[in-house]
Design goal:
Shape: globular
Largest sheet: 5 strands, antiparallel
Helix content: 25-40%
Structural class: alpha+beta
Number of strands: 14
Order of helices and strands: HHHEEHEEHEEHEEHHHEEHEEHEEH
Radius of gyration: 21 Å
CATH class of the domain at 67-162 and 256-350: Alpha Beta
Strand content: 15-25%
């Protein structure tokens, strides 16, 4: 543990940190579960949870396992634009692209840079979408020399120990300790994934699955009233989806309210002569410096999305990070890095999965 990176924000108390961390770590925990783990009184946990919710310190999302529904890959695009390009027009185009393309579920933009994350059924679809955007940007003189960088991670060829997982980050920043383990998760699916043809959903199951994704914070009773399916059926199906790993529930904390200032996107090419256990050990050391909220390891590419409390924390982390990867020569060149201000960036799309799920399941929204 690197103590120099511990954050003690004044806006959240010690007990609130404990409760928020347990919520992030185990999103389906009851107040009693959290009370037993933290040692806090049940009434205290209930009050804190209500207070955190009222302050909008976090929200819940349900991430679909698209691998089980026929999706083949995760794709990431990132770009650096010309500083002379009119920002309002480019931002307008970026928003329209994110809104009209169902595959894009998360996207950020700031001044001369952007990052988008997609789920896709196949490479052709995502490549066609990026070509469309690239042609428009080129026509209007937006793009820099590198154009739009597109990274493709087939589900069966990617390791994803972190996928919008804030637990390790909060543990370090809050200076907490626990003995709990961590399951390797890929887009909501357990590491041992099943093929899409193993999941045959009925029409009712499709409706329930879609609406669980679209309305992640609704109770089973509320969802029953909304879609006219019995609460018993919804509960039964939801538990099956969760057990089979078809849905991953995640708690997303408000990083700005917790005192974080920066979000950094990194892309690096792996030195393929380093592989196996040695490569994994080096990567584990790197992410231990500052746990990312997303971390992907493909056959030749590594991508990380990391939040930092401030620039000094970022600088110390990056210096330590550089010492290790340069010493071990794990990357073929200096990683590409985009730095975003959490306060100033535009969150164009924030965990919007329902439109794509509707398309894959062939149901009306």
């Amino acid at each position: 543990m690197y103590d120099i990176f511990i954050l003690m924000p004044k806006s959240i108390s010690k007990n609130e940190k404990l409760v928020l961390y347990e919520l992030v770590r185990h999103p389906m925990s009851t107040d009693r579960d959290i009370s037993e783990v933290t040692g806090l009184k049940l009434s205290t946990v209930t009050a804190i949870r209500r207070r955190l919710k009222e302050k909008k310190m976090y929200y819940m999302v349900k991430i679909p396992c698209l691998h089980a529904l026929g999706g083949e890959l995760l794709a990431i695009n990132y770009s650096v634009y010309k500083a002379t390009a009119p920002m309002e027009l480019r931002l307008k185009v970026s928003k329209e692209f994110a809104e009209t393309h169902r595959e894009v579920f998360w996207a950020i933009n700031e001044y001369v840079q952007s990052v988008g994350i997609h789920f896709s059924g196949n490479y052709t679809n995502v490549r066609r979408n990026i070509n469309e955007l690239e042609e428009y940007y080129t026509e209007h003189g937006f793009l820099g020399e590198e154009g739009i960088n597109l990274l493709v991670f087939p589900f069966e060829m990617v390791k994803m120990p972190y996928f919008f997982d804030y637990g390790p980050l909060l543990k370090q920043s809050f200076g907490l300790d626990d003995s709990g383990g961590k399951e390797d998760v890929v887009c909501g699916c357990p590491a041992e994934q099943r093929k899409a043809d193993e999941y045959k959903l009925s029409d009712i199951a499709k409706r329930v699955y879609y609406n669980l994704i679209k309305h992640p914070e609704m109770t089973d009773t509320e969802l029953s009233e909304l879609i006219s399916v019995s609460q018993r059926t919804i509960t039964k199906l939801r538990k099956e989806f969760e057990k089979e790993g078809m849905i991953k529930t995640a708690i997303i904390p408000d990083l700005i309210k917790l005192g974080f200032k920066m979000l950094v996107f990194d892309h690096a090419r792996l030195n393929l002569s380093i592989h196996g256990e040695r490569r994994d050990n080096i990567l584990d050391t790197l992410i231990g410096i500052k746990p990312p909220i997303m971390f992907l390891v493909g056959s030749s590419d590594v991508v990380a999305l990391t939040a930092y409390e401030d620039f000094d924390t970022y600088r110390r982390s990056i210096n330590r990070f550089s010492e290790i990867y340069k010493h071990d020569n794990i990357f073929v060149k200096e990683p590409s890095r985009l730095m975003f201000s959490l306060a100033e960036m535009d969150l164009l799309k924030d965990h919007v999965y329902a439109p794509l799920v509707a398309e894959i399941l062939d149901i009306e929204e």
